[in-house]
Model the fold of this input.
Amino acid sequence: MCNLFFFDYLVLVVGVLFGVAFFTLMERKVLGYMHFRKGPTKVFYFGEFQPIGDAAKLFTKELFKVYGVVLIFFLSGPLIGLFLMVLLWSLYSGVFFVFGRFFSLIFVFSLLRLGVYFLLFSSWGSNSKYSLVGGYRAVSQTVSYEVSLIFLVLVVVYLLGFYDLSGLFFFQSGFWFFLCFFALFICWFYVCLAESNRTPFDFSEGESELVSGFNVEYGGGIFSLIFICEYGIIIFLRFLTVSLFLGSSNFFVKLVFVCFVFVWVRCCFPRYRYDLLMGSAWKVLLPLRIFFLLFAGGVYFLVF
Done:
C-alpha cells in the first residue's frame, strides 16, 4: 500500500513539473496578448513546446565557476527550496495520508515558514551585495506576510473547528466561502501576491533596483531549480486558494481561472513601493486580520 502511495506521489511531482512548464507558457501567452503581441509561436504549433525548449537550454548550459561564494550554502539553497516545494505537494497525494491529514493546514504553514532558509542560503552564500540585499528584502517580506496569512486561515478554522484541508474543501460542496467571506478573500488574494513575490510585489527580484535580487549569481541548471521552486509554490498557493474559498466542484476550471487572474494582475499594475508594502503588512492588514479573528472567535463562542 505504501508503495502505491509513493508511486502516486511520484506521478504528482512529475505532473507539477509539467504544470510549472506550461504555466510559464500560459503566462507568456496572456502577457503577450495583453500587450498586443502573440508571445511564443515558433516551437511546434503555437509555441506549445517552448517550455520544453527553455528547460533543455537551461539544463545543458555550462556551469560557470563563481569565486568567493560559500559553496555549501550556494548549492544547498536551491535544493532546499526544491525539496520544500515537492514536500508541500504531498498534501494532494496519497502519501500524505500515511503521515496524517487532520492537521494538514499546520503542516502547510510549517513548510512555508522554512522557505525563508532557501532565501537566506541562496543570498548569503552567493557572497554578493546585490543578492544579499535581495535576500534581506525577500525574507522580511515573506515573514511579514506569512503572519497575516496564518491569521487569515485561523479565521476560517475558528468558524469550522478543524484543521483538515480536505474537510474544508468538501465542506463547500453546497456553497463557497468566497461568497460568505468576500472581504477575507480579497485580503487573501493580496497576501498571496506578496507571499509569492509576484508583480506588483516582486521586490526580491526587482531588476530595476536589485539586478535580479537574491538569485543574481545563479545560472544554467541551478537557476532553473530556483525557477521551478518559485513557480511550484505559486501554483500551490493557487491550489490552496481554490481549496479554501472556491469549493470542490469544477476544481480544475477554477484553478485555471485563478492562475489567469494572477497573471492579469501582473500585466495591469505597476510595481509597488517597498516601504508602503511593509507598512500595509503591519499597519493595515495585520490589525484587520486580528479583527476578523476576534470576530470569528466571538461567533464560535456564541454558537457553540
